[in-house]
Structure formats: C-alpha cells, structure tokens
Amino acid sequence: MTEHDDVRRMASDPATDWDILHWIAENHPELRPEVAANPSTYPELLEALADLDDPAINAALMRRFWPEDELPVTERAADPEPEPEPESEPDPEPDPEPDLQEAGILLPGDDQPQDSHTDPLHDDDPGVLAVGATPAADEDAPEAGERRRGRRVGFIVLAVLLPLIAVGAILALGLTLLGDRSTPAAEQSPAPEPEQTTTEPEESPEPSPEEPEIEGPTVEEARAALQDLPEETSCEDPAQDAEVFELLAERGDEEDAWTQEHADLSQDVVEDLQDECGDPYAARVFQLLSGEGAEHDALSTAVGGMGTDWFNYAFPATGAREMTTFSAPTGNVVCELGESLRCRVLDHSFEAPEGCEDGTTYRISVDEGPEPDCENQVSPEDEPEVLQYGQTAANGFFACASFPSQMSCWNQLTGEGINLSSTRNSIY
Questions:
Q1: Could you say which of 150, 180, 210 is where a domain stops?
Q2: 154 and 26 together in one domain
Q3: Residue 81 is part of which domain span?
Q4: Which pTM value belongs to this model?
Q5: CA distances to 260, 291, 333, 373, 428 from 304, in Å
Q6: 333 in a domain, yes or no?
Q7: Same structural domain, 21 and 62
Q8: Contacts 24+ apart (CB under 8 A), 105-112
Q9: Are residues 282 and 370 in the same domain?
C-alpha cells in the first residue's frame, strides 16, 4: 500500500483527527470529495468545501446529507458521473492550492475572524477555500448561482444541526468512548453546552488508626531544639527544660526513630546544663528524666546510665554507708533518702510548724533548702535499720550523720541541711 493510499484511507476514515482532515483538504485537492463525505469532518471545513462549487465535492456533500435513494431527481441528474481514476498511472502533480488557514478555514480552538461575512476575502484564484467568501460566478447565469447558494444554505443548516445531534449521542454513549475528540466538538458547537453534573472534590483520606497523624515538631526539629537548650535555658525552671528532652523522646517513640545518637545528645545536654546553670539545677533535671516519674524508658535509661559521680560534691559524706531508710538509735528520728531527703521527729518539745501534728517532717530537695513537709510524713518501719552514733549514711545527693545529741542531714552538692532532735531543730 502506497503513501497516497494511506492518505486516501484517512480522508474517508471517521476516526481521522480534524487536524489531519484539514491537512488532507489543503494538500490533496483530489481527496476533497472523500473529506466532504467523511462524517467526522467539522462544519467549517464542510462550508469551505461547499464554497468551492466543485461538482465532485457537491456530489459527496449530497450523498453525505441525502442517501442515494432520497436524492431529488433533478439533483441526481445534475451530478456528473465521476471518472474512474487510472490504476496503473501515477497521480498527477496537483496544482498549487491556497493554504486553508489563509483562506479562512478555522481549526478547532482557532479564534473566529472578525467580520468574516461582511468583508469576504477576494482572490483571483477561484479555488480558494474561504469561509464566508463565494467563488466567482457568471453574471449571465443567476439561476445556477441561486442553486449553489441554496445548496450551501442547506449544507450550513445541516452542519449546525449535526453537532447538536452528535452531542446528544456522545452523552448517551459516554464521553470516554470518543476520547479527546469529544472536547473540540463541544468547543466548536455554536449551541450551548449541555448541563453536566459537577463532581465534588474528593476528601483527603483520614489517617488510619494504625498510623495516627503526628502533630507538632518532627524528630529532627525536636533534636535541634534540644541541641540549642543550653544556650536558650533560663536556669529557673528545670521542669520546662526537661520537657525539651521528653519531646525528642516522644517523637522518637512515635516515629520509631530513637537512636543512640539521641541518647548521647541527651547526656551531653545534661552536662552542658551543669556548666550553664550549676550542679543543683542539672541534678534536678537529671532526676526528672531518670527518676520514678520518668515517662520514656529510652530517655530514662540513657540519662540514668550516667550515674551521679560526675556531679561536683562540694560537701561529700566521706566513708558513708549507702542506705535509703534508717532511724536514730533512740528510734525517735526516722529518715528516708531518695530523690529528696525527709526526716521525721516523732516526739519533740519544740513548737511544731503550722499544720504539723503527731511529729514533724522536714524535707530537703536537690535544688531547695530544708522546709517542713508534714503533708507527707515519714512512716517509721516496724524494724528499721539503725544508724549508730558516729556513723554516716548517704544515698545519691544526700547524707545524714548520727550523733548522741542529734541527727544532722544535708545536701552534698550545696551543704544546706538541718539538725534534728527531740528538743530542737536548726537549719543551716
């Protein structure tokens, strides 16, 4: 099959694109009848072909809109029999034909030229295809001109009605069957576009319960905030600084992203807080992150693994026994050493602080001095361990020394403490 045969097939194929039909009509004048008969040819091209008043094109247009058995007798007689093309001889070189765009034929998407009917194009070549322009007519043959104009009016009416029918068929069969060709048809149709059902925008899918949406800073943002903490801290609120550590641990748990690097960073920042804010402040942050109330195991393990030997003990208890609960030999003073130091005098002759009944309890925190804490009285054990006179007990940041006259307890970081006995108490 030759290239010319392929072009002829495309000129008659209803699936041929509009741009290709336009190109065939412009560059292959001998195939214009096939283009005119093609049911997919758009109305503007049909009108331009009709204006050429070519007998073969007119016959194709008549067959397009009126089947052979419905043609008027006069029209069928007027259409000459097309001469068969020789099979063996090559196609003659066609005469140069004018460009369809210059002649006024519009492709889908082109803007309609202004005043196309009031100011028609004129050309000495009677073969120019122009929308709105009529070929030169014989002034002595008005009847022939009237017939041609009548046929063109019929063609134009049909060309306008056919797209409307096609739009209805497209809606019935589904726009997807025609692909991209349905869009130009809707744009070129002079009739109002059919009402289409608006599609509501799809709602964004909600996160599945297995993967809850994470709000707040990312792991990297939380890591950066912790790294900047030593420079940003006010050294006045240990709990607030501890929250910066906990945020990184929380994001690490949620995103399964906690690493050894985060553990090392947490230890480094605690030590940096010691340099910036002092030992008592850093010790309190240390307790919040690794003590009984710690919420994140990975963080608690990392910070708690540091131990307490790296703190600067200004008032160490040399040679002390490690003890958590004990009593004086008399049993009248009982103490607990943990995150804070608490000692209770069961019977005493001194005036009890306000709110203290049935003994008086004092508390020393790692970052605060001695003060009454009767709302949390120390309960004596049935058989407590005894801290004999002359012995010292220590646990973490606190220590106590037992004397015949009193029990003396203090903070090993700051030296703040209290002396307790049945007759007096003194804070130092």
A1: 180
A2: yes
A3: 3-180
A4: 0.50
A5: 14, 8, 31, 27, 30
A6: yes
A7: yes
A8: 105/22, 105/25, 105/44, 105/45, 105/48, 105/129, 105/130, 105/131, 106/44, 106/131, 107/18, 107/19, 107/22, 108/18, 108/19, 108/42, 108/184, 108/187, 108/188, 109/184, 109/187
A9: no
Same domain, 147 and 15: yes
User: Which residue is it, tokens 């009944």?
Assistant: 357
Q: What's the Cα-to-Cα distance from 335 to each of 40, 145, 199, 371, 401, rounded to whole Å?
A: 102, 125, 75, 15, 11
Q: Measure the CA angle with vertex 330, ends 324 and 332; round to 5°.
A: 70
Within a domain: residue 364?
Answer: yes
Give phi and psi for 33, each to the nearest 5: -60, -40
Helix residue ranges, H only, 191-342: 219-232, 238-254, 260-277, 279-290, 297-304
Token duo for residue 36: 């005119």
Tokens in use for 16? 């041929």
> Residue 202's pLDDT band (boundaries 50, 70, 90)?
low
Residues 251-265 have pLDDT tens digits of 988 888 899 999 999
Which among 396, 269, 264 is positioned nearest to 338, based on CA atoms? Answer: 396
Give the pair of three-digit tokens for residue 234: 């006010």
The secondary structure element, H or E, covering residue 58 is helix 55-65
User: Contact, 400 vs 389, CB < 8 A?
Assistant: no
Determine phi and psi for 36, rounding to 5 degrees.
-65, -35
Strand extents, DSSP E, 5-129: none
Q: Answer whether residue 314 is part of any domain.
A: no
- What is the rounded distance in angstroms from the CA atom of residue 231 to the CA atom of residue 81? 100
**How many domains are contained in the chain?**
3
pLDDT of residue 254: 85
Residues, the chain: 428
- Domain C-terminal end among 304, 334, 368: 304
Are 55 and 168 contained in the same domain? Answer: yes
**Structure tokens of 251?**
């994001």
Whether 189 is covered by a domain: the verdict is: no
Q: Counting beta carbons within 10 angstroms of the beta carbon of residue 158, is it exposed (0 to 12), middle (13 to 18) or buried (19 or more)?
A: middle
Q: Are strands 360-365 and 368-372 parallel, antiparallel or unpaired?
A: antiparallel
